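Last lecture ended with a question: if I hand you only a sequence, what can you say about the shape of the protein? Today we answer it with a concrete record. The protein is Lipoprotein. Below, first the input exactly as provided, then the predicted structure, then a couple of comments.
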Amino acid sequence: MKTTIAILTILLLSACVTLPSPTQEKEADYGPFPENYQDIARDYLMSELRDPSSIEINNMSQPIKQWIGDKLTGIKYGYLVCVEVNSKNLLSNLTGLRNDALLIRDDVVIDYVKDGALISGMKLCD
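The predicted structure:
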């Protein structure tokens, strides 16, 4: 019963979050431009992916201002970097190249989207 009430409370409170308007996007604070974005992205992937010695990074985009989020989880502002990466999975097989998305703010990865696609289906990286 307490769990149900807690979940309902969270859902009601999160329903108050609105997605940013074009004006809010333009005026939002995205933090400073990550000059060392390549090191930040590489270090993050090395620490988060299963087998760091197997990671292949082929391409990395220049950072662009981007927000990620929804009405349930809230909005995060930062700089989006798309990385073409290949790494090993649990079975030690290479997964094949994919475009992962990393949102960087204040020189820290604040969000990681494997395959660069949000749950909604929106592609952050091509």
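Comments.
1. The domain at 19-116 is CATH 3.10.450 (Nuclear Transport Factor 2; Chain: A,).
2. The mean pLDDT is 87.
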